[in-house]
Amino acid sequence: MEQASRGAVLVTGGGGYIGAHTAKSLAEQGFRPIVFDNLSSGFREAVRWGEFVHGDIRDGRALREAIEAHGVRQVIHFASLIEVGRSVVRPDLFWDVNVRGTASLLDAIRDCGVERLVFSSSAAVYGQPEGLAARDLLAEGLPTAPTSPYGDTKLACERMIEAYCRAFGLSAVALRYFNAAGADPSGLIGEAHDPETHLIPLAIAAGLGFGKPLTVFGQDFPTPDGACLRDYIHVVDLAAAHVAALAVELPAGGFEAVNVGTGHGWSVLEVIDAVERTLGRPVPRSVGARRPGDPPSLIADPSRARDLLGWSPACSSLDQIVRDAARWHSNQRYGRAARAESASGAQDQPRMAEIEGGDRPGVRSAV
Ligand SMILES: NC(=O)c1ccc[n+]([C@@H]2O[C@H](COP(=O)([O-])OP(=O)(O)OC[C@H]3O[C@@H](n4cnc5c(N)ncnc54)[C@H](O)[C@@H]3O)[C@@H](O)[C@H]2O)c1
């Protein structure tokens, strides 16, 4: 039976990785997701819950029409360019889409009387915090000092949102994600970035033989095994944090920035071990130099998320993250890997029947 009693939520970027998982979670919780996406890096096939509006967040008129047509009172804003490396060579694009796009959305929100905004921010706003030892937790009160144009745009958006809240009576929560990973256990949606820059999908692709051997950037960090430590949050837990952020009681004008992570760091080598355990195959790899600006350790202090959102991770064990990601990548339904396999006719060959679950285990096909 269809539930729509909790109202329409505009989900910008809902055709992308985290947005699609959040749209599913919203629908499961009785909301009506309205996905607004220009599909520049997202997929129509990922929009399976709620309605789809093709549009660009820099187009204020299209936003106002979508908000008014659906009676939207809450917005979750994922739409963004996300590749840190590209932001260094094309800062113009990042300021245009991420910052001008967010300004356009905020104007539409103000004009249409939207009450709550949840914004995709990032641990990138912290940059490389000084004086922290490996495994120290990052709390929201730390100074923000991004080290990339991508991080700059996320911080600029946070500040702009906070100012709009104060001036126009909106209330907002900026969620600073650490490393999103994993996939919906159904196997219907998952991570399909192109290019892919995240460790877990790259390690899985290398292990399954459809990606390049993995490069471990730096094994001389001041950490227990010399590799970087990162905090991985299952995308299903991350989606749940957005739904929780819609319900947080905030006064009109209230703004909160909240970390979303587990409070536990895994080293790159521990992640590779987990991928090898799950696949039952080695992950071909080499060791490269450290990348400029890569902090040794980035681990969330998740206390504010627990206290404010009443949220804590339920499925973010490393093994579950890797298992769900491996199931998705071995049966990927959309994205470059699915297209490549479809073109080669390899979709007829079961690749990873041992990763069970999903509704079509072991056989990948393009949608
Ligand atoms: N993936 C992570 O680990 C991570 C970590 C921290 C923060 N984030 C943030 O989370 C959000 C979602 O990330 P993701 O990994 O799902 O990325 P994604 O690329 O899969 O999704 C982004 C979506 O936004 C859409 N989009 C881009 N520009 C648009 C525009 N101008 N108008 C309308 N739609 C547009 C894309 O088509 C895509 O569907 C981003 O804001 C990102 O910065 C992601």
Automatic annotation (TrEMBL):
Cited CDD domains: UDP_G4E_1_SDR_e
Q: Report the cofactors.
A: NAD(+)
Q: What UniProt keywords are attached to this protein's entry?
A: Carbohydrate metabolism, Isomerase, NAD
GO MF terms held by the record = UDP-glucose 4-epimerase activity
Domain of life of the organism in this record?
Answer: Bacteria
Query: What Pfam families does the database record attribute to this sequence?
Result: Epimerase (PF01370)
Where are stretches of biased composition, namely Low complexity? 336-346
Q: What is its EC number?
A: 5.1.3.2
InterPro entries to which the protein is assigned, alphabetical: Epimerase_deHydtase, NAD(P)-bd_dom_sf, UDP_G4E
> Which protein, by its recorded name, is this?
UDP-glucose 4-epimerase
Gene that this polypeptide is encoded by? galE
